[in-house]
Amino acid sequence: MAESPSTSSPGTVSQAPTSPTTPVVEEVTQAPDTETPAAEPPVVSAPAPSASVCAPLTSLTSLTGNLATWLLTAPITPPNSGGFKEPGGTELAAFEGAFRTLLTEGPNPQVVQDLAKLGYGVSTFRNDSGGGWLVVREQGLLPRGGGTFIINLFPARNLWLEAPHADSDEGTLRQTASQLVTLGARALLITGSNRCAVTTASPCSGSTSVCGTKGLRISDTAHYGNNFFTAAHRALRDTYPDAIAASIHGMDAGDGPEAAVVSDGTGTPRPEALSNRLRDALNTHLAGTKKAFSCNSAEDSGKHRTLCGTSNVQGRIDNGAADACYSEAPAATDRFIHLEQSATLRGTGASSRAVMQALADTVPCTLAGSGLGCQAVAAQDCP
């Protein structure tokens, strides 16, 4: 049974820090390449569902269609809209607990009711190529920029994906939606607000000029912990302590030598780091002169070598930082991957498919569902 949720606000402390970490500067992203690839339908199927998985689903609203395409309509409040409303500490603890229960027990009537009180509806999604999913999304007329969260009922990999800058890092929403389905990942967390949706500064350490002025905003889910996105991350981590969380981002590669910069959420060199394995897999599949670099390899360097995700709140949580808002993690757990990508990798061509294949190579098929490179099973949905 998962432990009870924390009663304190995730990612915050009660007073200002005495010695905050040196800010980490992020780069402005660029638009991805939009070349049209050859048709490549997702490889998704699921084992015969057990009664315990399917039983609670009949009372939920059921959606059907292409999940990866449908997720492109996930609501995200635009920049400078004031569309992010910070939840209170009690709400965050309640959401974290309810989301954990949803993961461990399924959508029983009580957890559906608990999420509804927080402004979230739960529905099922029947993908047109097979598989079964739970969708947790904001409902009602007054959304707070809280996010959209998808749970795979029949995952193939002990991996979940996160898109904290799903609109501002152009292409990452489409990319993670496709990765969720094709890889057979456990879940996908999508931000509900543009990182520049509000002007209120985040107190967390780190810095960027993406919003036009130097500094972070509280609407930036990768750099502020008091949001439902981070609460869902905490619930997933508590429920699946050995799973890998992949935070997918975009960078302006400019004239640098990097197609991608990978890290474990720290800048510490470690030959055995999971990030180095993902870098190697990427370089196996990438074409062209630009290559993937790792923040955890002493041999790697380059123009964008500083983009190591050390100020990412979710990475700090997974790596055991004393305070995810103010403190960098002292060491890596190899349970978090931070991936910065050029526009080409976030497009729809061969380089984007190389990222998919590299993730498949790095995170093996250890669960019963189906995904890219996993042993095929008969596609089957809940009745």
TrEMBL record:
Biased composition (Polar residues): 1-16
Biased composition (Low complexity): 17-46
Region feature Disordered, mapped onto this chain: 1-46
Top-level taxon of origin: Bacteria
Name of this chain's protein: Uncharacterized protein
